[in-house]
UniProtKB/TrEMBL annotation:
Transmembrane segments: 12-28, 59-79, 86-110, 116-134, 161-179, 210-231, 243-269, 289-312
Gene Ontology cellular-component terms listed: plasma membrane
Membrane topology, record value: Multi-pass membrane protein
UniProt-listed Pfam families: BPD_transp_2
UniProt subcellular location: Cell membrane
Name of protein: Branched-chain amino acid transport system permease protein
Source lineage: Bacteria, Bacillati, Bacillota, Bacilli, Bacillales
Leader sequence segment: none
Length: 336
């Protein structure tokens, strides 16, 4: 009962913070900063999808950007070729998520039997294949020039787009939180910790990996959909390995296997990109801002080896165990 109470309290904390974020566009009208926060929400979703693989199942993928790109291109192509109505927006989202589900299923069946770095390299090759295909199929994707499209008028308003991204983030966070706390999530953690032992207990590992690969791919594709809608332009860079590496860094910096950690990591990395790139226009010292960003990343890894959220959780658990040990010691003294 005490554990249930703690879950409820943490849920209300997250909901309260989400409500506070919902007020931001109504009291703060800086469009560039609102756009930055929207990008944080979007890449928070993308990073959470990557955390399902890395943090909860122990799967390292270097090709996760292909699902992000499929989602972005799926909705972009539909809207670019049709009227910008709500019907075609929903159709575009369904096409994007459906394509991502099929591709992630096929990719999972073909690659997830491989181990560790072999799987990582093959996913990198698949993402590169999608990048080359997007560049060559100019009639469909616009090639390296990209696609410019129009969205329904309702979502052209920055506040409405902000609320859509925030609501999507909150819904996906709680859905994935429920998933990771379910029996499926516990099996995934068991696979991460000791795959051979999990198999010896009678679990078939491969179907679980394929299921989480599909879920992760669909969530990543939805992040790509929101990204395309937020900028109303898309090009082949969404398939670049840099996009996957960003998700990897967001997950590691925020805290692997925490869900809230990737959101924190997305906020830090996106704000660091924005802040340091602005400084590059102010002084020549900051022209190589990516080096400064690398230094920041190194410092975070040194002082927060388990990520920010993971380190905080670890410190809390240590304090809790110390208190419990003291209480047990007092009880033993009284009993003796």
């Amino acid at each position: 009962m005490r554990q249930l109470g703690k879950v409820q309290i943490s849920t209300w904390v997250y909901l309260l913070f989400g409500c506070l974020l919902a007020v931001v566009p109504f009291v703060y009208d800086n469009l560039s900063m609102l756009f930055l926060i929207i990008q944080i929400f979007i890449f928070g979703i993308f990073a959470m999808s990557y955390d399902l693989l890395l943090g909860y199942t122990g799967i390292v993928s270097f090709g996760h950007a292909m699902f992000f790109g499929v989602g972005a291109y799926g909705v972009s192509i539909v809207l670019e070729r049709n009227e910008p109505t709500l019907f075609f927006l929903i159709l575009g989202i369904l096409v994007a998520l459906g394509a991502a589900a099929i591709i992630s299923f096929i990719a999972g069946v073909l690659t997830l039997r491989l181990k560790s770095h072999f799987y990582a390299m093959l996913t990198l090759a698949l993402a590169g294949l999608f990048l080359v295909a997007a560049e060559k199929m100019r009639s469909l994707t616009g090639g390296s020039d990209g696609l410019i499209f129009t969205i329904p008028d309702f979502f052209k308003d920055r506040t409405n787009m902000y609320l859509l991204a925030l609501i999507s983030l909150v819904v996906i966070f709680f859905s994935l939180r429920r998933l990771t706390n379910s029996p499926l999530g516990r099996v995934l953690v068991a696979i991460r910790e000791n795959e051979q032992r999990t198999m010896s207990l009678g679990y078939k590992i491969f179907p679980y990996k394929v299921i989480i690969s599909v879920i992760s791919g669909v969530v990543a594709a939805f992040g790509g959909v929101l990204y395309a809608l937020s900028i109303r332009f898309i090009d082949t860079t969404v398939f670049a390995v840099d996009v996957t590496l960003d998700a990897l860094l967001m997950t590691i910096i925020g805290g692997v296997g925490t869900l809230i950690g990737p959101i924190i990591g997305a906020g830090l990395i996106e704000y660091a990109h924005h802040f340091l790139s602005e400084l590059s226009d102010v002084h020549w010292i900051f022209e190589r801002w990516i080096i400064l960003f690398g230094i920041v990343y190194i410092l975070v890894v040194i002082f927060f080896p388990m990520g920010i959220a993971g380190s905080i959780k670890n410190m809390y658990m240590k304090r809790k165990h110390k208190k419990e040990a003291k209480v047990q010691q007092k009880d033993n003294q009284i009993a003796s």
